[in-house]
């Protein structure tokens, strides 16, 4: 659990892109990138790392919803970006907005950003 004043920690999935990875690292967030660990890592392994290290997975992969809700796998939070046509600059803009405006609300939650809206589920 992140204590008051402590920053979120992130685990960035491959499809999210280097701009988001670089921004979070530059802002001082404890960030790990799947591309640097194993770009072919299975989603279940990604969730395991996230749960073990209390990291929020930032992904564009809808399979994480299946794993969290149907398979009931534990996690440290998931931010699913439903941005099929977005370029890396748009992804970065959205991630910046979310962590600026909702850092305490997204902690350990399953969040979906789609069509300009962020849904946060416990």
TrEMBL record:
Residues 9-105 form the DUF5615 domain. InterPro entries: DUF5615 (IPR041049). It holds the Pfam family DUF5615. It comes from the Bacteria. This is DUF5615 domain-containing protein.
